[in-house]
Specification:
The structure is a single chain. This protein has 9 helices and 18 strands. The protein is an alpha/beta fold and 348 residues long. Strands 2, 3, 4, 5, 6, 7, 8, 9 and 10 form a 9-stranded parallel sheet that branches. Strands 1, 11, 14, 15, 16, 17 and 18 form a 7-stranded antiparallel sheet that branches. A two-stranded antiparallel sheet has the order 12-13. Helix 1 crosses helix 3 and helix 5 crosses helix 6. The structure holds pyridoxal-5'-phosphate.
Length: 348
């Protein structure tokens, strides 16, 4: 695809997804944790990048699991024909469980009731034991067994004949902002493993999201769950330069005019020209997801690689930018990069 043309000439706004950048970022995960399996997190339609292409690329690069939020996402992912194991990252609703059992998607278990329901459903299906992972709450407060309660409950979970306790996981709440608390979570996870019979009790032990795997030693874990960093965004400083943003968001210039001094631009006339100003109108606005409160003049888009400042407020489907400083005014149809692989223009 020509990088500066929309895939369909009637599209004014489009996203470009760079799968080679995605695979580069997966390579960063692997270089940091070479002996560790990868669960690539593709929830929320692969962070908005589109599950089918993203999941296919990650699967061909040999990740072990693909992580999603719920059964609806799991179903969409399964329809891509992936042969990778599908993991549900949060607690399941009872109504989702028959489908999960049928497809043998992997759930993380947060309560004895959830485990018993899966056990019954899998017994009724006369399947071999269903692989599940135990979720441990080491401080996120969102799901899982309390770390302190798990040793007491573990024998009852182990006694469920139609479940296979294949893995155990926890989630870091503050790996991008609080090292002290993160180390406490890692220590509590390791202590929980010890109290359940040692790391080898579970085939998979996992704890780290992107921030965790970028900045922390991961103890006895052998599976990491990166999301954000696969898409090229580092949640912590010091790593962004090693990652490549996967998404570019572009939009076409629809009109270029020179306005006289004293001419207001956009709703509320928050910007008024003080000199003759060449203004490009671009076919993107808050209806396309651009924040409505982007600050005038401080926000820039790239045209021909040059930053061009936003003038006035974002409207529903159009913005105006100053192109007076460009040596030749860009003709209508030129692509402007709203988000791209350039410092200051990445999708943070
Ligand atoms: C979303 C999520 C991840 C990925 O987190 P990032 O910060 O995007 O890397 C990992 N594990 C769980 C349980 C999640 O919900």
């Amino acid at each position: 695809m020509n990088a500066d043309q929309p895939p369909d000439p009637t599209h004014r706004t489009w996203a470009e997804i760079d799968l080679s950048a995605l695979l580069h970022n997966l390579g960063v995960v692997r270089s940091l944790h070479p002996d560790t399996a990868v669960m690539a997190v593709v929830k929320a339609d692969a962070y908005g990048h589109g599950v089918p292409h993203v999941a296919t690329a990650l699967a061909s690069a040999g990740v072990e699991f693909l992580g999603v939020a719920n059964a609806t996402e799991a179903r969409r992912l399964a329809r891509t024909g992936t042969d990778k194991r599908i993991y549900l990252l949060g607690p399941t609703a009872p109504g989702e469980r028959p489908e999960i059992v049928h497809h043998r998607w992997v759930s993380c278990i947060s309560s004895l009731e959830e485990a018993e329901h899966f056990d019954q459903l899998n017994a009724a299906a006369a399947n071999p034991p269903l692989p599940v992972h135990l979720a441990v709450d080491t401080g996120m407060g969102r799901g899982g067994f309390l770390a302190s309660s798990l040793p007491g409950i573990h024998p009852r979970l182990q006694a469920l004949p139609h479940l296979h306790l294949e893995g155990i996981g926890s989630h870091l709440s503050s790996a991008d902002e609080n090292p002290g608390f993160t180390h406490q979570q890692i220590d509590l996870f390791n202590a929980t493993l010890e109290s359940l019979g040692g790391a080898e009790t579970f085939t998979y032990r996992h704890l780290a999201n992107s921030a965790g795997l970028l900045d922390y030693p991961l103890g006895h874990t052998n599976l990491v769950r990166p999301g954000l960093m696969l898409y090229g965004i580092s949640p912590v400083p010091g790593h962004q330069q090693n990652l490549r943003p996967v998404l570019s968001l572009k939009a076409s210039i629809t009109l270029v005019r020179t306005l006289p001094p004293g001419h207001g631009i956009s709703y509320g006339r928050t910007f008024v020209t003080d000199r003759p100003t060449t203004v490009a109108t671009i076919g993107i606005g808050y209806g396309d997801g651009l924040p409505r409160n982007l600050p005038s003049q401080k926000t820039t888009v790239l045209i021909g690689g040059q930053p061009c400042p936003l003038l006035g407020r974002v409207t529903m489907d159009q913005i105006m930018v100053d192109v007076s400083h460009l040596t030749t005014p860009p003709p209508p149809g030129t692509a402007a990069t709203i988000i791209g692989n350039t410092p200051g223009h990445t999708a943070t």
